[in-house]
Amino acid sequence: MKKSVFFGALTVAGLMAGASAAATLDDVKARGSLNCGVTTGVPGFAEPDADGVWKGFDVAVCRAVAAAVLGDGSAVTFVPTTGKTRFTALASGEIDMLARNTTWTFSRDVDLKFEFVGVNYYDGQGFMVPAELGVSSATELDGATVCIQTGTTTELNLADFFRSNGMSYEPVPIETGAEAVQQFTAGACDVYTTDRSALAAQRANFDTPSDYVVLPEIVSKEPLGPLVRHGDNEWGDIVRWTLNALITAEELGVTAANAGDIAGSSNNPEVKRLLGAEGSLGEMLGLDAEWAKRAIMVEGNYGEVFENNIGEGTQIALPRGVNAKWTDGGLIYSPPFR
User: Fold this and answer.
1) What's the number of domains the chain is made of?
2) Are strands 212-214 and 191-195 parallel, antiparallel or unpaired?
3) 127-171, pLDDT tens digit by residue?
């Protein structure tokens, strides 16, 4: 669900030539809505509810950008994408940004000519198995059948892990996370491998989660984050600094509830700059002074977005871990607003 490296670089480059020529900010304003690419079948990250309303950790980034640019966090058209279609959708201009759980890699950044604007979740690839299989480590999976999404770096990581451990496996190719869950729970494969966050999210939705075990091994680095097209630096700055605004807001104690009035009472100059009470940061982005305030007020700061969608108080129950803010020993860190 995340990581196509086999997508043709030349195809993307060709699509880029036309798509990046237009200013995305102007397009979004003229359209009156943000076209945001998201994943499918990953509860807690991006999934429509029973009423068809998209919710989740990645969805919140889309809504924050829409609020910053358009003044309305609901002015978003969510475009479901798969591992194979996501990069084409971004390169062609079908979407303005890609917020789904996509791994920042060298080739995607440089060869496919996309711009990763930051990391909103540090992850790693893992393995899930039925508890009845009786294994406690991925090193015990020699000869297993493995559900694996095609056209992804998950495939490469899987091959590397099994080869380095002198093991063999039989791949069971799938297209989407939803299909993987369907095949895995139906017994079509012994193992399902993808990002550990997605494994936890999908396992939480099983009828009997305790029937399945996420093994302890983490076999890759998966820094996940939103991305835009190369060549439109103004738009890239807007998406980048909207994400940074959510991160900085948590550091400074700015929340969805107090963002509307804390600037007037705070003595912290960075709070005032962030919320538009001082300085001209919004003008530098081509936006008004209160762009970041609006972004924060949609679903809260980074910590609120995390806890409300995938945190330990939710069914997904992911700990902050390395995704804690840097002052708590984690990796979540924003450049200063000045």
Assistant:
1) 2
2) unpaired
3) 999 999 999 999 999 999 999 987 678 888 999 999 999 999 999
- Please check whether residue 227 is in contact with residue 97, taking contact to mean a CB–CB distance below 8 angstroms: yes
Task: Give the amino acid at 169.
Answer: Y
Quickly list DSSP for 105-135.
Answer: -HHHHHTS-EEE---SEEE-EEEEEEGGG--
For β-strands 191-195 and 144-149, DSSP reports them as: parallel
CATH of residue 234's domain is 3.40.190.10
Distance CA 60, CA 66 (A): 10
Mean pLDDT of 13-28: 64
Which tokens belong to 221?
């680095």
The phi, psi pair for 244, rounded to 5°, reads: -65, -30
Question: What is the Cα–Cα distance from 250 to 17, expressed in whole angstroms?
Answer: 38
Q: Residues of the chain with pLDDT > 70: what percent?
A: 93
